[in-house]
TrEMBL record:
This is adenine phosphoribosyltransferase. Homodimer. SUPFAM superfamilies: PRTase-like. The keyword Transmembrane does not apply.
Length: 147
């Protein structure tokens, strides 16, 4: 249960304030949300992980799936906090075993995600962790990989 005040967790504002917004990066028109500034703020970084652990522990979740690259920053800590395994979804050509792949479109280009065959067993409850959703293309590809 989140420690909510007026329906909103008091930690959220500091977390939001710790994320730097860089206009026109990496292309004109993109408002880039830079989480590296959040990582420099120990309390905000820890609160971010804690919020997810508090929300998802005791829910029978056995796998945290993290999306390369920035999902790897938050996902493993959340997995350890809730007592789950961690499964990385990687960019093409990085995983040594047999993989399944999904292509997707980004705000600035196209890309592909891969997962090791057998990393997730049918019926396992999972959560998918990344730093942000923009178009939703990456998250949709991750959901298709798990489906
Ligand atoms: O909702 P979407 O439009 O799909 O965009 C969100 C995705 O874009 C960013 O990753 P990026 O592909 O830039 O890779 P990186 O984490 O390796 O920098 C971000 O970390 C998300 O994964
Ligand atoms: N607006 C944005 N900020 C940071 N990362 C992104 N990835 C895709 N869109 C992004």
């Amino acid at each position: 249960m989140l420690a909510a005040e007026n329906g909103r967790d008091p930690r959220l504002k500091a977390i939001s304030d710790a994320i730097r917004v860089v206009p026109h990066f990496p292309k004109p028109g993109i408002m880039f949300h830079d989480i590296t500034t959040l990582l420099l703020d120990h309390k905000a970084f820890k609160d971010t992980v804690d919020l997810f652990v508090e929300r998802y522990r005791d829910m029978g979740i056995s796998i945290v799936v993290g999306i390369e690259a920035r999902g790897f920053i938050f996902g493993p800590s959340i997995a350890l906090g809730i007592g789950a395994k961690f499964v990385p979804l990687r960019k093409p050509g990085k995983l040594p075993g047999r993989v399944i792949s999904e292509s997707y479109e980004l705000e600035y280009g196209t890309d592909q995600l891969e997962m090791h065959v057998g990393a997730v067993q049918p019926g396992e409850r999972t959560i998918i962790i990344d730093d942000l959703v923009a178009t939703g293309g990456t998250l949709s590809a991750a959901i298709r990989l798990l489906g």
